[in-house]
Amino acid sequence: MFPERGVSTVDRPIEQVAALTGASTRMLRHYDAIGLLRPSRTSAGGRRYYDEAALRRLWQILLLRELDVGLNAISDILDGRPDMAGGLSAHLESLLRERDRLTRRAEAVELLLERLEAVDSALDDLGRHRELINRFGPPPPNLPNWPPELGELQRRFAALAKGFAALRIAGIPPHDPRARTIAAAQHEALQRFWPVDAKLYVELAEFADDGYQREAVYAYVAAMSATTVRNSSSCSGLTK
């Protein structure tokens, strides 16, 4: 692209300035309209040209825009109202206030999410309680504070679940006597709240998300059933 006759080679047309700086021609025309960046000259046909001083000012504008400084503030800074350091200090204070506002808003959103999660958890617990009651019948009548009494069972189950997890991490198979011992303790804890026999315990194990725990329950019940069969056989032999 060649400059028009009579135009200094240091004057750049608006299209070239846009390509050089990344600012669109529309943006440059807007800056001209608000008096932020005047072209060094305009041709008879209305084409804008920018000299080196205008180009330096444009780079300063773009830098300040990257820092999220408003156009009015940029105009004040570049025109010495106040000096650049003072203008940037004022902008920094504004950014810090905005940061504090966003921090407070983020904390409020986090609190709201925590409350929503608590509500969802309570609804999930209620749904599980109803499912258990529908499937296995109501709890024994000696639990007047149902379902708050379930909290003790949940804490006990959580502690036993850690035991299952430790065995799984250690590579101990779920049919190992140590895993069956934890399953037996879980069954015993559950029986304090429900008259759960072996069959119902296996069905309850289906609610567990942990496959290792389910397998340990199956192994425990199988071992318990085998022991019952052996004991029955022994008793039968004694009565003959």
UniProtKB/TrEMBL annotation:
Limits of the HTH merR-type domain: 14-80
Keywords in alphabetical order: Coiled coil, DNA-binding
Residue stretches in coiled coil: 92-119
Pfam name, any one: MerR_1
Entry protein name: MerR family transcriptional regulator
